[in-house]
Amino acid sequence: MKAGVVHGREDIRYEEIERPKAGPGKVLVRVKYTGICGSDIPRVNGDACHYFPNVLGHEFSGTVEEVGEGVTTLKPGDRVAGVPLVPCMQCGDCQKGNYSLCRHYSFIGSREFGSFAQYVAVPERNAVRFDDAVSFEEGAFFEPATVALHGLRRVDYKGGRTVAVLGGGTIGMLTMQWAKIFGAKKTVVFDIVEERLDLAKRLGADCVINSGKEDFMDKVNAVTEGRGFDYIYETAGNTVTMKLAFELAANKAQVCFIGTPRKELSFGVQEWENLNRKEFTLTGSWMSYSAPFPGDEWELTAHYFKTGQLQFDDSFVFRKIPLSRIGEAFEMFKTPGAVKGKILIDSEA
């Protein structure tokens, strides 16, 4: 089969490798789309790849081609989304259902060959079936959608309260939609790009606020009647928005950092004053799994994409690029700001 193989820093090649097999307990998936994740970029354009040669890719959709011995829940022809984490299932964290915290995990698309290829073999439980009404593009967004839902529920989320989402990227848009699905009284999306705010309104945000404008806090006070927000989800991984979360929090609020920062972050006296005086709860979120593995984050994503309540917008996809041109895709990321959305690698093009 053909695959995009990483041989070194800035060296990813389209070449022929051995096609994997559906061994016992595994399924062979014919890959349709794989999204380029932010974590893939330093593995190709930097020094973060675990070994060489390697085949990356973990946000994928496709069709079951073959099933191995003992597989009972899937059959050839099933449309599936890939679950990349392979927990050990033996350690204390796994036994408690905290699979994201497993210390002995493997990961499809970094620690073992992934889906920047025509085929990928995965354990039976690492392929989540989805309905024919769900597109393969949506299937490639299961992983980011589950990350958003896992983050929503890292706090004691309850409906009927106000929610602020900081960052209008894909994860932010999905987080906002999950908050609405589970009964938010009011959802407010913050960003500094008007196009993203327009998209948030199209997808159902009750209010949008451009946090780059000087008077934006006046609008915050009007929306929340001066209280601040009950739940705040930071999805951009930006120092500015992470600090803004402290300012927007209501008394006894719950704050979750879903985004991954790329720079050092320090909290000054003002942030700690907010944290202490408001007595709000601050936590982080890592990956997207719960018991029984891979968790209802994945089942609910399949369900709500099927019903249309979790909306997929074409603007989520910046470009579709054939697997044969995967090197060009990673070249785009070398120009800051050039990629505005997800790049999908098409393994069948």
Topology:
Layout: E1 2-8, E2 11-16, E3 26-35, H1 40-45, E4 59-67, E5 79-82, E6 85-86, H2 92-95, E7 106-107, E8 119-123, E9 127-129, H3 136-139, H4 142-152, E10 162-166, H5 170-181, E11 186-191, H6 194-202, E12 207-210, H7 216-224, E13 229-234, H8 239-248, E14 249-257, H9 269-278, E15 281-284, H10 296-307, E16 317-322, H11 326-332, E17 342-346
Parallel strand pairs: 10-11, 10-13, 11-12, 13-14, 14-15, 16-17
Antiparallel strand pairs: 1-2, 3-4, 3-8, 3-17, 4-5, 5-9, 6-7
Helix pairs in contact: 4-5, 4-10
Specify the structural class.
alpha/beta
Helix percent band: 25-40%
Q: Which consecutive residue ranges, at least 5 long each, have pLDDT under 50? A: none
Q: Which sheet architecture does the biggest sheet show?
A: 7 strands, mixed
Number of strand segments? 17
Q: What global shape is seen?
A: globular
Element-level helix/strand string: EEEHEEEHEEEHHEHEHEHEHEHEHEHE
How far is the first residue's CA from the last residue's CA? Answer: 14 Å
Count of DSSP H/I helices: 11
The value of Rg in angstroms is 20 Å
Mean of all residue-level pLDDT scores: 97
What fraction strand?
25-35%
Architecture overview:
The protein is an alpha/beta fold and 349 residues long. Helices cover 27% and strands 27% of the residues. It has eleven helices and 17 strands. It has helices spanning 40-45, 92-95, 136-139, 142-152, 170-181, 194-202, 216-224, 239-248, 269-278, 296-307, 326-332; strands spanning 2-8, 11-16, 26-35, 59-67, 79-82, 85-86, 106-107, 119-123, 127-129, 162-166, 186-191, 207-210, 229-234, 249-257, 281-284, 317-322, 342-346. The strands form four sheets. Strands 3, 4, 5, 8, 9, 16 and 17 form a seven-stranded mixed sheet that branches. The protein has a six-stranded parallel sheet with strand order 12-11-10-13-14-15, sandwiched between helices. Strand 11, helix 6 and strand 12 form a beta-alpha-beta unit. Helix 4 crosses helix 5 (170-181). The radius of gyration is 20 Å and the shape is globular. It starts with a strand and ends with a strand. The model has no long low-confidence stretch (mean pLDDT 97).
